[in-house]
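Quick question about two entries, pasted in order.
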Amino acid sequence: MTKEEYIILYQKSLQGNCTPDELVQLQNYTDDFELIEPGAVDLEKQAHMYVSLMKAIAEREKPRSFFNWKKLSAAAAILIFMLAALLYFTRQKTVPQAESYATTKRSLILPGSNKATLTLGDGHTIILNRTGEGQIASENGTAVSKTKNDELAYNVVATASEKIVFNTITIPRGGQYSLTLPDGSKVWLNAASSLRFPTRFSGDSREVELDGEGYFEVAKNKQMPFYVNTHDMKVKVLGTHFNVMAYRDEVFTKTTLLEGRVMLSSGSATAYLNPGEQGVWASNGFTVSKADIDQEMAWKNGYFIFNEENLQSVMRKISRWYDVDIAYSTHNQNLTYTGSISRFKNIAEVLKVLSLTGTVNFNVEERRITAIN
């Protein structure tokens, strides 16, 4: 099991959506991945989740199971005590009393998870994170399914009419999702993003519309170029891996190429990218330069990576992923930040990393964060 697959199973377990087989699989790999730091989630919840996990496994193994639930409950109580003690001593060593600002309100702001809404051609909507695996719809001869890995998949299964039917997948703030398009291309979508696409590709091109940020691995088809349309530019590819960041509240639209070759266009302006390059579109045209691949792909790989990034840009990313509102009480707009941290940390840990620079502090009230410097 990869780390990404483990993360998906862990998130499903928190939502209570795991099957007994998935719970067994999660238990088997729990020791291999340390995704949650002590104190990142409620300790009692961790222990109860462990007990539920064991019960589900026992149910699956009946009648061969000989679990003693009184003993297991006692073990869970011991587990709570040990985790609490570990958390207490860790905090005593690493967090000075004056900086112990990870309040209860902050602790309630958890990282994002797999969340999305699918809008079908007839306007019907499906909340994917509340839907079980298997086929969930059929659109114009194309089967729409949710896989066991919590992804969306489109498979053309029958001939259909000439009518083109479009679907839209919308990712809220605090969410992410991935899908396989009808041609076999794969797309990963970041928080606060949407993708509009046909349920089958026809004609001499494949076109989708992106609002927000997405990473694409496009299936090769020289006879049908693949286009990603954003609000201010178009990306043309034949078969390649690339990332497009096209949020409307960002100053620039950026395309980062990992593999293959792409052409960028906006009006009469064009630019070509080779692997390892990034094209940035602003109102005065394209700028092509060497890309920081690790930074641009950090969101897909489960990290925040900041490289001399200004505070407003940093906080926009935090706002999308943790579904919080941002305000500022700042005097210096020119400060930049460099560093990295897991996107699966409690928000208090992320804010602590920024505040340790000594240039900014944060006030948290419910889901509103005010940056102060």
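Here is the second entry:
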Amino acid sequence: MKRKQITRREFLRTSLSLAGGAAAGSWMMSRSLAQAEQQSLARIFEPTMVNGLMLKNRLVRSATWEGMGDPEGRVTEQLIDLHRRLADGGVGLAITGYMYIRSDGRLAPFSAGADRDDLLEGLGRLADAVHARGGKIVAQICHAGGQSNREASGGVQAVAPSAILSPGYTELPRELSEGEIEEMISAFAAAAGRVKAAGFDGVQLHGAHGYLISQFLSPLRNQRTDRYGGGLENRSRFALNAYRAVRAEVGPSYPVLFKLNAHDGFEGSTTERDAAYLASALAQAGIDAIEVSSGSRADRNSVLRREILSWRDEAYNLPPAKRIRHEAPEVPLMLVGGLRSLERMWGILHCGDVDYFSLSRPLIRQPDLPGRWAGGDRARSSCISCNGCFMAAVKGEGIHCVQPGA
């Protein structure tokens, strides 16, 4: 049966109708509403398991580029301090910003890497610091593909499924050969092995926002005629093979997550149908959780929307998440996209549409927000979605809220 998202007001109206509008019915309605809200709020802060990983609540720090790696991709004390604050703030799970799997796949300067064994010491210090504060941390691994930054990647030409310009980019990437694709898949597995060895609690493959994995899924960016291009099954092959290689590397009991683009926002590119197909295939292959996102870095407004002013603007990726839930009902779903209030989240959880709620910009401004909510403060996040935090990172300052009071 298809789930329907309801608002608090709609829930109230339905209860009134069932009660017949009588005073006693109105009292019962209010009591039922309060009980439903308390039950859903309690579920947000209940412990859950993802492939043996115990999470103390359903609030996730969505992977967010911190801009705090050193020029060689090493973890810095600044990055460790940021994740300490998140752990202290009470988030159930923190997912690191994008860690590149090869030096030719760097998105930008100041990114942390997972492409070499000499990075293990810093990665281990990051994982240990979070664990010392009682937190859990997953490393996101990625290759930017045709969206790689030439300067940050050592001056080499970007690579992609096809020699086609990514929307919003001016440099033509080089098409990967089939042999190079297999090498790339092995690089994903090797990076996953490193973060496991460093002590991270899991790994997430970045299959969203126009980076390499999502480029293979896109019929706009992938115009290959071999087994990695053409129909949807072939365009999904890279993502699935990367996941299988990672799983073989880390074993069955290590949590492996996937960040999936519901759509790219460009005409002729990835659609919700494509995403739902891949989600189902990943579920059958044994993925442990899927985080539903959308948009592309080429159009930042589609990824980092402004003017999240009320609950009506929140959860803008919920409609495609419902479709993915229908196609892959057994897989835990994480929802990212404009979430700012407990009220919106408890309504979504009440309907069973997703299992976890991923926050990015609110935790940049208020890393203690989960703890405040758990302690009874129900105020929505004070983040105004100005995106100034990312401009600070681009300048080399590291990501931080630039608004007064942060």
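Reply: The first helix runs from residue 8 to 19. DSSP finds 15 helices and 13 strands in the chain. Hope that helps.
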